[in-house]
Each structure stands twice: as C-alpha cells, then as structure tokens.
Amino acid sequence: MIRLGAHMSVAGGLPLAVERAVAHRCDAFQIFSKNANQWRGRELTASEARAFRSRVRAAGLNPVVSHASYLINLAAAQPQLRQQSLEAMADEMERARALGLLGVVLHPGCYTAGSEGTGLDLIAEGLCALLTAQRRTKTMVILEHTAGQGTSLGATFEQIAYIIAQTNGHDRIGVCLDTCHLLASGYDIVSPTGYAGTFERFERLIGLDRLKLFHLNDSKRPLGSRVDRHDHIGQGCIGLEPFRRLLNDRRFQGLPMLLETPKTERRSPTLVAVDPLDERNLNVLRELISKVD
User: Percent of the chain having pLDDT more than 90?
Assistant: First the structure.
C-alpha cells in the first residue's frame, strides 16, 4: 500500500527517467518535464511522449508527477513576470497531459509587491485562468506547502485553504506536503502530539481528500527556521521516528511518498544506474514500514 519513489533525472530523454525509477524499485516518481531553471523547454515530441507513457504502463508505476519550473511565480504583480509565469505554467500542464501524469507540483509563489493577501488572490486568479483554459483535461495542479522563506506564500495551511476557496474549491487542485517544509515552517511533526495536531489541523482546514502526495525529506534546519534545506532521511532535525509514523499512518496508505534528498554528485548525466544515495534513503524508508502478516 505504500508507494515509495523519488525525483528522477530526465537526462538523455524522458523515457530514461522511467528506467531509472525501475532501477531504484520505485512505485511512483517525479520528474521535471523541462529545465526547471528556464522559461522555455525543448519541444516534447509525440513519439517521446508515447514512449514515456508506454514504459510507465509496462513498469506499473503510478502515479507520476512533474515539478514545475522554479521560475514560475503566480503571485507576481509585475505584468511581464506574471504573463511569463502563466504561459510557463500552461506549458507545464500541457506537457503533463501529453505524458499522462497525475499533475504538476507547483510552489504557489512569492509576493513581489503589495501584501500577502494580494499575492494569494493573484495565485487563485492565475489558477482559475489556467484550469479554465485547459478544462477538457484531468491534469491537476498540486500546490506544494512551502518552508516560508522570504515572501514565499503557502507556508501555512490557512494560506493554502484560502487559495483553494478562492477557486471555488476547484476539483483539480491538490496539495503536496513536504516533511522538511512542514518542520521549517513551524509544524511540529517530530513529537507524537505535534504530529497528531498537524494533521488534525490539515484535515480541518483543507481536507485529506486534497492531499495527493508527500515529499519525504529530512531537514538541515530546526523547527520554525523557515529555511528550506533538505537532508538525508534520519540525518537531520526530523530523525527516523516521524518517518516511521508517517509511513505507517493508515490515513496515507496508497499515497505516493517521494524523495527529494541530495543525489550523488559527478555522475554521467545519461547513465541509467542506481544512485547510491537514493538507494540508501529508499532502503531506510522501506525498513521503517511495519510488516503485517
């Protein structure tokens, strides 16, 4: 019932990401469908999309998601940046549709002018426009809860709930929770009482039906630091027990739980082989899953 996986490189072509996921014994995985630090990506051909979907089906991997470019900022008030962000996100959604993905994971954005409230309204307006323009698809936008660095929005459940409410509760908006971001933004998921309170609050404000996946990352910085620095599982400020609790929480059975922990450096960009660090982190997580006879 646990669907473990990781973010996989698309170097050498999108279909190779599937081979990398298989090599790591993933159940699900995440990709960038284009360069995450550029506005425009290379053309996604129909043949490459077909090959990707075919390999995903053959491997039984489900779900697969993409992560949107880090440049996209739906909270931007400056007209040129806002238009670039909307166009880039529309492209991300179209690529996800062509690849048969569940959806696109998106950092909500950072307000560049005005107030927090204005930024949240701009995000909601942008989402409504994007989802309306692609109304005939099933592709989801999956808002990722953030660590709260600087003026980034989406660091509280209240902010995410507000964005969703301003879209009239659109059914193609989901939520991704990142364990590092939760701790950094001030949610105590380490202690048993803090863990229980965090997810009670999420269920009350947003609803567990909105939760589509987890990013599993330990945190280099402590509770409430508002600094987004991922660490290997069990080696940061979260430790092993909260991950054990999460992996065995019946409410989250069947949800994808995907690593975004540091990769091994200086590897061939087109190599299809097991990354030792990903393998170690995945094996640590597998050992934490309670075995039921």
Answer: 92
